Amino acid sequence: MDRSTAINIMEDLTFEQLSEKDKAYVLREQEKYKSSIPIKIKNLLARIEFLKSVGFVENEHFRYKCNKETYTSNVYFPTENGGGYYKYELEAIDTSIRLINPTFDSSTGNIRTFETECYFDDKNYISCSSIMDRRGHYKPSTILDKIKFLWETAENCKKYADARRSLVDNTIKEYQEQYPNAEIIAKKNTEHRYNIFNQNADVVSIKFPSGSYVNIVVTDATLYRTEERVIKIYDAETNGLPVNEILNKFNQQVPCGVEETA
Hints:
This protein is α+β, with helices and mostly antiparallel strands. The chain has 3 domains: 1-56 and 65-95, no CATH class; 96-172, no CATH class; 179-240, no CATH class. The chain has 6 helices and 13 strands. The strands form 4 sheets. A 4-stranded antiparallel sheet has the order 10-11-12-13, covered by helices on one side. The longest helix is centred in the middle third of the chain and has 39 residues, at 140-178. The radius of gyration is 34 Å and the shape is elongated. The termini are far apart. Residues 1-9 have low confidence and may be disordered.
């Protein structure tokens, strides 16, 4: 093989450069893909009707696609000069059925849905590992029960998050009315000593014009706590004072349970 022949091995071919056998192969492939479109549409409609007949609801439990697409196939064919690649188009259609996987997004406070393609066997059992968390084909009723469970879980998470947000908002509003000059905000719990007990507590910080502030826990992860708890206090007046002055200041405070006399 000379140098010029070696260069031509990887050239892009035209249809006319193909042998009669290879031309027939390309035409058969194009016809095969094109003729399969009506069959795929028929199978899709049959599966949609089957899912609905066993209790699946479109846009709640599943969605489907029926989109015609054009693919480019790049196939190597031998020629007199060695061979090359010929590109040709194939008409196809996407008739996939996708199951809906709902989940609660804590960053937005809303329910998000993800779609995952599922596969049917000859008994209409369904395989979808992202829904069932494992491989294998399952009865449609088993798949449907799992999707309903995921919806129920996501909705409960949203209700819980909405209740926590409402409680925090009401707490901020209450303290804003009592201390109009203070800066009152909700923040994440960053107190490590309190994280030992609960890392998901909602914290409201009340900061006064002097720089002093108080961080209080409004709720914990269970939402059962109704009593607010102080987890951090910063006193701008005592901050930076010598140790003896701070101790003397504390020593002058009235003992707990003793009423201060005039």
